[in-house]
């Protein structure tokens, strides 16, 4: 009996070991399972090629993705796409996929992610597919830059236009309180002081997302140097340069005047929108992509946009179209380890353009990347029309924080810009940033 | 095979699966973290050995000192609140003359079963500068003391630590309460006959006999404080800047935001050593002699 017990225990031990070894190889197993059907059927003879597509397949974008997928069935009927909703996680999940060698066939890649995956040899070069499908000629002038990396190759095909970072304002608050809508820095400071005196939050910033602080700083810099923070990310200049000192100094002054709520660092996007649309805050910073949703909340015709309110009065004419925001060489990219690299590359290139077209049609995106004129189903609102008209004048753009190529710089500027907005002294900020710049560039 | 040998074999058969599982899930990752802390590694490309560079940088990094200080503050708050208040409440609840003891026991334990995210959101509202409960109470009592509790350089970590302390008070309360209930009643009867007051008998009997429980609670509270992450992730995202960083947050920033897995591993390795040191220290100092009754 005792012998039997010992044997039974040994059996349990063995089964646990087998179970654990099973856990260890689960990823590989899953990987094989996904491609298993295709292995059995041989790629040459398959009728359906399944591609995994990691994208922002949620919210209002879902309709555009679905419509683009339907349209693509006519062009590449052999391809069946399975969407995986991208996580809002600083690209951690997609990087983990890359580390594990399980990148989806197609995925959205920002400039920063492209650099990371390029260095680790995970990205497929799309030069041939871009040329073969004449992609560049289908893109308008401002969007062509997004197709090419600084090394001369294409790693992604743009799917959305370059959005500006914008300060939206509530027209009624400014009118009702007899405050001039700021056209330059002096007027902005006056407006902030006046709004604060009337117990209205001048600017609601959802600074729990650290990029918003970075964008505010970038907006304060582009009035003096169109390169903004992107220039520092590229390895040029330091925070001791005049434009950066001026930008940071303006923010320091505005913060002292009461630009932000004390809760700004715990404020989420939804909180900020609620404050803005309820009239508790006069201005809100975000990318121009949110204009439709914000206008809907505030009421048509009640919202305006400011691009460069931090610019000195004497520089407004020359710098008013130096825009903060944008982003380069980003869009749908393809994994080098895809089972069907050629098919995935062609599909990624074509659906990028189709997706942009559907964004215009389905959700009224006024920022098309296409030469082809596309009209939305419901027409553009006045503010969307205004943006489309302004966008033609944009002289230069920087990037949003996720477009920084140096991840270390991105982290450093995100944390330090928050410190500045929380009341850090200008000299300490400049000193800390210069010290960090030296480190992240090595 | 003698019966002693058979006993040893049975012992092995029972313990080896667990030890194996523990080794694979805990020990191996820890060893790998220590190994990676000597490398410059972005998580994707091959790692390059850089000796002690990560540790040298660690001690020169402002984030490190902020994280160390915050971790200690966090642990301090947990110890004082959870063990201090936990003991007082447990003593009160163990008194049969207290009315509604069952209700209070359940009530104190409810926050434990709530999600950290829910509790964090609740406290974000409580700490809100405009109209939050804390600031409103100050106004109500006539104090003009309006604070940005979660954004203030000196208040943020205390506010977050209190959130965690409040939520997990129930765990320590239950542990201490159970330990108190296991103390034989005749010890208190003898103390009463000798003329000891209620508080004196608890001071002289209950507290010393809770040594083993306190040891466990202390280790849980201190390592929990040093390891804290969830609350600051939800409430402040480590900010503004780095003012609410702890080592886990620093590790998260280095590895997942900056792509410096080697440096993040160095921060993690330091945290493991720190927790280990505290555990050894507590084991050496608290309840050195096992009391049996």
TrEMBL record, chain A:
InterPro entries linked to this entry: Bact_solute-bd_prot1, SBP
Signal peptide: 1-21
Keyword Transport: yes
One Pfam short name: SBP_bac_1
Record keywords, A-Z: Signal, Transport
Family of the protein in this entry: Belongs to the bacterial solute-binding protein 1 family.
Designated name of the protein: Extracellular solute-binding protein
TrEMBL record, chain B:
Pfam families for this protein: BPD_transp_1 (PF00528)
Record-annotated ABC transmembrane type-1 domain positions: 68-282
Name of the protein described by the UniProt record: Sugar ABC transporter permease
GO biological process assignments: transmembrane transport
Record keywords, A-Z: Cell membrane, Membrane, Transmembrane, Transmembrane helix, Transport
Cellular component, GO, one term: plasma membrane
Cellular localisation: Cell membrane
Family: Belongs to the binding-protein-dependent transport system permease family.
Residue spans crossing the bilayer: 9-31, 72-94, 106-127, 261-282
Membrane topology: Multi-pass membrane protein
Annotated organism of origin: Paenibacillus anaericanus
InterPro entries hit by this protein: ABC_transporter_permease, MetI-like, MetI-like_sf
């Amino acid at each position: 009996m005792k012998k039997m017990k010992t044997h039974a225990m040994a059996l349990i031990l063995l089964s646990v070991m087998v179970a654990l070894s099973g856990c260890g190889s689960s990823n590989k197993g899953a990987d094989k399972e996904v491609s298993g059907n295709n292995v059995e059927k041989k790629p040459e003879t398959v009728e359906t090629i399944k591609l995994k597509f990691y994208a922002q397949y949620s919210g209002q974008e879902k309709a555009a993705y679905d419509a683009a997928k339907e349209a693509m069935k006519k062009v590449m009927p052999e391809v069946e796409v399975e969407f995986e909703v991208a996580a809002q996680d600083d690209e951690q999940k997609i990087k983990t996929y890359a580390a594990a060698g399980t990148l989806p066939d197609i995925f959205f890649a920002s400039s920063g992610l492209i650099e990371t995956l390029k260095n680790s040899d995970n990205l497929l070069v799309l030069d041939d597919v871009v040329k073969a499908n004449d992609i560049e000629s289908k893109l308008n002038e401002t969007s062509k830059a997004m197709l090419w990396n600084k090394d001369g190759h294409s790693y992604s095909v743009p799917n959305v236009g370059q959005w500006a970072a914008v300060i939206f304002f509530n027209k009624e608050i400014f009118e009702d309180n007899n405050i001039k809508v700021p056209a330059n820095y002096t007027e902005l400071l006056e407006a902030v002081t006046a709004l604060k005196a009337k117990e209205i939050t001048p600017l609601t910033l959802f600074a729990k997302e650290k990029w918003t602080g970075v964008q505010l700083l970038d907006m304060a810099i582009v009035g003096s140097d169109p390169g903004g923070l992107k220039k520092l990310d590229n390895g040029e200049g330091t925070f001791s340069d005049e434009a950066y000192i001026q930008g940071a100094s303006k923010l320091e002054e505005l913060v002292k005047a009461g630009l932000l709520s004390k809760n700004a660092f715990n404020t989420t996007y939804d909180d900020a929108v609620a404050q803005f649309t309820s009239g508790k805050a006069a201005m809100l910073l975000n990318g121009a992509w949110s204009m439709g949703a914000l206008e809907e909340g505030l009421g048509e015709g009640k919202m305006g946009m400011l691009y460069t309110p931090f610019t000195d009065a004497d520089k407004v004419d020359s710098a008013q179209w130096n825009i903060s925001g944008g982003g380069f060489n980003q869009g749908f990219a393809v994994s080098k380890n895809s089972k069907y690299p050629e098919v995935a590359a062609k599909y990624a290139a074509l659906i990028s353009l189709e997706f942009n077209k559907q964004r215009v049609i389905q959700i009224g995106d006024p920022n098309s990347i296409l030469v082809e004129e596309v009209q939305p189903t419901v027409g553009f609102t006045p503010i969307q029309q205004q943006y489309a008209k302004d966008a033609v004048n944009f002289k230069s753009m920087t990037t949003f924080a996720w477009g920084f190529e140096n991840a270390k710089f991105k982290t450093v500027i995100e944390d330090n810009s928050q410190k500045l907005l929380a009341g850090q002294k200008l000299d300490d900020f400049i000193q800390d940033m210069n010290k960090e710049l030296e480190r992240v560039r090595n | 095979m003698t019966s002693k040998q058979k006993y040893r074999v049975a012992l092995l058969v029972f313990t080896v699966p667990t030890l194996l599982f523990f080794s694979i899930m805990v020990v191996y990752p820890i060893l790998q973290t220590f190994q990676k802390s000597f490398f410059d590694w972005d998580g994707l490309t091959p790692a390059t050995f850089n000796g002690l560079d990560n540790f040298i940088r660690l001690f020169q990094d402002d984030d490190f000192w902020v994280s160390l200080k915050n971790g200690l503050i966090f642990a301090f708050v947990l110890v004082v609140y959870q063990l201090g208040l936990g003991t007082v409440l447990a003593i009160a609840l163990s008194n049969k003359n207290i009315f509604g003891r069952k209700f209070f026991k359940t009530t104190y334990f409810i926050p434990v079963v709530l999600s950290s995210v829910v509790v964090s959101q609740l406290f974000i509202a409580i700490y809100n500068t405009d109209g939050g409960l804390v600031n409103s109470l100050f106004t109500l009592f006539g104090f003009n003391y309006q604070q940005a509790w979660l954004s203030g350089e000196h208040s943020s970590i205390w506010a977050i630590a209190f959130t965690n302390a409040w939520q997990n008070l129930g765990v320590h309360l239950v542990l201490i309460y159970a330990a108190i209930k296991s103390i034989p009643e005749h010890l208190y009867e003898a103390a009463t006959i000798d003329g000891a007051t209620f508080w004196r008998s608890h001071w002289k009997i209950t507290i010393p006999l809770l040594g083993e429980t306190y040891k466990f609670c202390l280790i849980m509270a201190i390592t929990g404080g040093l390891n804290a992450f969830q609350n600051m992730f939800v409430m402040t995202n480590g900010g503004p800047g780095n003012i609410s960083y702890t080592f886990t947050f620093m590790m998260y920033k280095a590895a997942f935001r900056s792509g410096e897995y080697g440096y993040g591993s160095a921060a993690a390795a330091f945290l493991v050593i720190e927790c280990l040191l505290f555990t050894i220290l507590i084991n050496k100092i608290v309840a050195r002699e096992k009391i049996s009754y």
